[in-house]
Design brief:
With 506 residues, the protein is α/β, with parallel strands linked by helices. It folds into three domains: 181 residues, D-Maltodextrin-Binding Protein, domain 2; 105 residues, D-Maltodextrin-Binding Protein, domain 2; 152 residues, Lysozyme, CATH 1.10.530.10. Helices cover 44% and strands 14% of the residues. The strands form four sheets. Strands 1, 4, 5, 6, 7, 10 and 11 form a seven-stranded mixed sheet that branches. Helix 15 crosses helix 16. The longest helix has 30 residues. The two termini are 35 Å apart.
């Protein structure tokens, strides 16, 4: 039998932010719980104070999630995923940029949330009493059943819980998952369940891959995730349902009531429960997302195709080799150029903006000495864009590296003239013209008449370069994470995070 899924899974996660970024001043240690107890294994943190007003002031909503086919992943360089698209629409409606924080194998998303590394966990999380002690949840946006999933190589595949308890088949689940606590409930109810505890780096999709490959005998999955995976993986067999009508929601800090209210208002438009909870009402938008990711997704078909995965593992876009060659010739970071291309054209070489900018890096024809038609050639366009970026970096070479990069990206977007106006405005206001935060503020002020009326280049839509810099740097960090993920897969494979405790009981 040929397995549809490459043994090297894309569902592993890597550390996004270093320990130096953690807000250790807020740390409050919890007691040491037994490895198989009912308490969640995490380091307790008093949640930082960051509600919607702070998020709005920063302009960025930070989403904590896993890299998997139903939450967040890259498809030919474009960010996709059910959770990502659902939350991105909320961010768009609130005029926020969306930043993705991928939880690493040794990181607990609830700790990352309360530390302030992210603002919301969007990862197909079931509301459970254990989790409610740590965070708050929004209103639900989905209802699922939890079910046992067997490997097709398992000779005995019990159809009922009573039969399952009699077989001693190890059911492999993550320690902090809702599945773990549901199995504990069943054990308390008298079912003799053999639970095999996995590393928290092994998310549901990764566990399904291992069951599909025969490396694990059984696991637990939400029914929608099983049916989606079963379309593209061989070797999965359905087992008994162990929990019905679980509610799925976003997790937020328990001291962010305004954020909770706004998210609840947004979700209410897209998902409502009937009194009997059997037939939820979903918006057209939510139904489209469900079909896209759980029923008929071309993107997921590619994600689970072993030949496509093998050829493209660790690759961001179809232009990686070309971008790498150009970046090397210019002394630039190829991931930075790739992040710019994603922002400028979504990797469409025939893209043309309302202002006349064309190609992958949206070059303005009137400002370059290149024939117009040649700008639609990917290599030519990347070379021209890279040279423009390099000239901006050289223009700001006297700045420290962080400000140099931010200034160069902003200039690529808004031009030298508006940047010069912003710096003059910063000086007039006794601000540092060499600090990006001050220039970002000045660019926003150039949208107001009392500031731009005296500016040499007049009105500037300053929010665009500010967002441009934020989104490119966010995407750049995400690309770095995914490249590190690919390297981890290639160097060590899935076994680095398996760490099963075989045939151990809680």
């Amino acid at each position: 039998m040929v397995n549809k899924y490459n043994p090297i899974t894309r569902s592993l996660s890597v550390v996004v932010l270093s320990a130096a970024l953690l807000l250790t001043s807020c740390q409050k240690k919890s007691n040491n719980y037994d490895s198989y107890g009912r308490d969640m294994l995490l380091t307790q943190y008093e949640p930082i104070e960051r509600d919607f007003a702070d998020i709005k002031n920063s302009g960025v909503l930070r989403m904590i999630t896993y890299y998997s086919s139903n939450t967040y992943f890259l498809n030919q360089g474009i960010e996709v995923g059910f959770e990502y698209e659902l939350l991105r629409e909320f961010a768009r409606e609130n005029d926020l940029a969306l930043e993705v924080v991928i939880a690493g194998p040794e990181e607990n998303p609830f700790d990352l949330l309360n530390q302030g590394v992210g603002d919301v966990i969007a990862a197909n999380y079931t509301i459970t009493p254990e989790r409610r002690r740590v965070v708050s949840f929004t209103r639900p946006y989905n209802i699922v059943d939890q079910m046992i999933v067997y490997s097709s190589g398992e000779r005995r595949r019990p159809a009922t819980l009573k039969e399952l308890a009699a077989t001693n088949i190890p059911i492999s689940v993550r320690r902090n998952s809702s599945y773990y606590f549901r199995l504990l409930d069943l054990i308390d109810e008298g079912y003799d369940i053999n639970m095999n505890v996995l590393s928290d780096g092994m998310d549901t999709e990764a566990a399904l891959v291992q069951v599909s490959n025969g490396n694990l005998r059984a696991t637990v999955s939400d029914d929608n995730m099983f049916h989606a995976a079963n379309r593209y993986m061989e070797g999965l067999m359905p087992g008994p349902v162990i929990s019905k009508s679980d509610t799925i929601a976003w997790a937020i800090r328990n001291n962010a009531p305004d954020l909770e209210t706004r998210m609840n208002r947004y979700l209410y438009k897209h998902f409502r429960l009937s009194e009997d909870r059997d037939e939820p009402r979903r918006s057209t938008f939510l139904n489209i997302l469900r079909r896209k990711y759980f029923e008929e997704s071309r993107q997921m078909a590619e994600y689970f195709n072993p030949e496509w995965q093998f050829q493209t593992i660790g690759i961001i876009s179809p232009y990686d080799d070309m971008v790498k060659a150009v970046a090397e010739s210019k002394g630039l970071d190829w991931l930075l150029l790739t992040a710019m291309i994603a922002q400028e054209s979504s990797f469409n070489p025939y893209s043309k903006s309302w202002a006349g900018a064309v190609g992958l890096m949206q070059i303005m024809p009137q400002f370059v000495d290149v024939p117009y038609e040649d700008l639609y050639d990917p290599l030519t366009n990347i070379q021209v864009g890279a040279q423009i970026l390099k000239s901006h970096l050289e223009h700001y070479a006297y700045l420290d590296s962080t400000n140099q990069l931010s200034f160069a990206l902003a200039t690529y977007n808004v031009g030298l003239g508006h940047m010069a106006d912003a710096r003059r405005l910063a000086i007039d206001r006794n601000r540092n013209p060499n600090e990006w935060e001050e220039i970002a503020d000045a660019l926003l002020k150039l949208m107001q008449r009392r500031y731009y009326q005296d500016a040499r280049f007049g009105f500037a839509r300053g929010i665009e370069p500010v967002r441009y810099v934020e989104e490119i740097l966010n995407r750049y960090r995400t690309y770095e994470t995914i490249i590190a993920l690919a390297e981890q897969q290639q160097n060590g494979g899935i076994t680095q995070i398996l760490n099963p405790r075989q045939n151990r009981r809680p």
